[in-house]
Design goal:
The complex is a heterodimer of chains A (61) and B (148). In chain A, 21% of the residues lie in helices and 30% in strands. Chain A contains one helix and three strands. In chain A, a hairpin with a 6-residue loop joins strand 1 and strand 2. A six-stranded antiparallel β-sheet of chain B has the order 3-2-1-4-5-6, with helices on one face. In chain B, strand 2 and strand 3 form a beta hairpin. Chain B is globular and about 40 Å long. Chain B starts with 14 loop residues before the first strand and ends with a helix. Classes of the chains: A alpha+beta (61), B alpha+beta (148). The interface between A and B is medium-sized, with 29 and 31 residues.
Chain lengths: 61, 148
């Protein structure tokens, strides 16, 4: 891992269940002390992506 | 797993994934759908999933059963409702055309049927293997892509 790159964010992920063939749990954004529950791995990935990019703008189809 | 021909081609959200590179254990390639004549490229599986999810939101199919959550400070911004009764965009290609595209390392014809439990459910057809794989979540979808 390249440690010289600027850090984009630190997230603490706690998986508490694994129903519907996916993960459920809690993610904490360490720098901003924000906590949110996620209902699937897809939702977790989207949350992290939106947090890092700082935007939830949709691309045109 | 079962052996059959192409699945339902009439679904509006048919996506053809052409994997061209598998370097470093990840997948890179092109993604085709009927509403664009040009492919969308992806350099890893998560980029592919994000682009597919935005595509489904864009055409409103399949309808998401949950509203997306976000990590944010203070009061959450008012979320825009995805409008599901708007018209589909103009088709730029026919399903019969896009299923002919092939990736150098593999091809996946994906039909996501539902978006329940904040995730995807559907099936993947691999033309090279003539097999259909069903998935109940994006985790299972990633496993199918990674196993080829």
């Amino acid at each position: 891992m390249d440690r010289t790159k600027k850090s984009k964010g630190t997230f603490i992920v706690k998986v508490v269940d694994a129903e519907n063939a996916t993960w459920q749990g809690t993610v904490t954004w360490a720098e901003k002390n924000v906590v949110q529950n996620f209902r699937s791995a897809l939702e977790l990935v989207k949350m992290l992506d939106t947090a890092i990019s700082g935007s939830s703008e949709e691309e045109p189809v | 797993m079962e052996k059959i021909s192409y699945g339902n081609l009439s679904v509006p959200n048919l996506v053809v994934i052409c994997v061209d590179e598998t370097a470093g254990g990840d997948r890179a390639g092109r993604m085709y759908h009927c509403y664009s004549s040009r492919p969308q490229t992806f350099s890893n599986v998560f980029e592919l999933i994000r682009k597919m999810d935005r595509f489904f939101d864009g055409i409103g199919y399949p309808q998401a059963s949950t509203r997306a959550r976000a990590l944010q400070n203070g009061h959450p911004k008012k979320q825009e409702n995805v409008c599901y009764n708007r018209r589909l965009p103009q088709k730029a290609a026919e399903p019969g055309e896009i299923i002919e595209y092939r990736g150098k390392k593999g091809t996946f014809i994906v039909g996501v049927r539902f978006r329940q439990n904040a995730d995807w459910q559907g099936q993947v057809f691999c033309p090279e293997k003539q097999r259909i794989y069903r998935f109940e979540s994006t985790l299972e979808f990633i496993k199918i892509l990674s196993a080829q």
